[in-house]
Amino acid sequence: MAKSASEQLAHFIAKFDPKIARLIRSCRVVLRKRFSTAFEIVYDNYNFFVIGYCSTERPSDCIVSLAANAKGLGLSFYRGAGLPDPEGRMLGSGSQNRFIRLPTAATLAEPAVAALLDAATIQAKVAMPASGRRTLIIKSVSAKQRPRK
């Protein structure tokens, strides 16, 4: 019998060490509240497990993503290179993407991080839907993966 998207997601998260799995779940709760009409697009890839919060079903319309591996969890800003970051919280040097580490879900409520989330939402190519329900989409699952624990 085919698993639902929610069941598949729970299975992907269960692959992680319990501490990281709890962190993924708690950060997801915060982001689901913040982006209540988002398309949650899930990738269980070779290097990372990713949950993107997108304004459409297109991955290129992603605003932020949770990205996890065995070492921990980060918040990736799809177009982070163009965001104001006066406190220097973002890491990375690519032409587009930047990220911050998430040691706890409380990090998402810190003023500097909340300001980055606000700025990322404002600069999105496609605005988040004003109404509607969040949609969970399992986009990609790699047969071969790095260990999650």
What are the defining features of this structure?
149 residues, 3 helices, 6 strands, 6-stranded mixed beta sheet, globular, alpha+beta
Count the domains: 1
Q: First CA to last CA: what distance?
A: 27 Å
Mean pLDDT across the residues is 92
Q: Cα-atom Rg, whole angstroms?
A: 15 Å
Biggest sheet character: 6 strands, mixed
Which series of helices and strands comes N to C? HHEEEEEHE
What portion of the residues fall into strands of 2 or more residues? 15-25%
**Which overall shape is indicated by the principal axes computed on the Cα atoms?**
globular
Low-pLDDT stretches are none
What is the gist of this entry?
The protein has 3 helices and 6 strands, in the order H-H-E-E-E-E-E-H-E. With 149 residues, the protein is an alpha+beta fold.
Protein described:
- The protein is of the alpha+beta class and 149 residues long.
- The chain has one domain.
- The chain has three helices and six strands.
- Strand 1 and strand 2 form a beta hairpin.
- The longest helix is centred in the N-terminal third of the chain and has 17 residues.
- The two termini are 27 Å apart.
Task: Please give the structural blueprint.
Elements: H1 5-14, H2 18-34, E1 39-44, E2 49-54, E3 62-69, E4 72-77, E5 98-101, H3 111-123, E6 135-141
Parallel strand pairs: 1-6
Antiparallel strand pairs: 1-2, 2-3, 3-4, 4-5
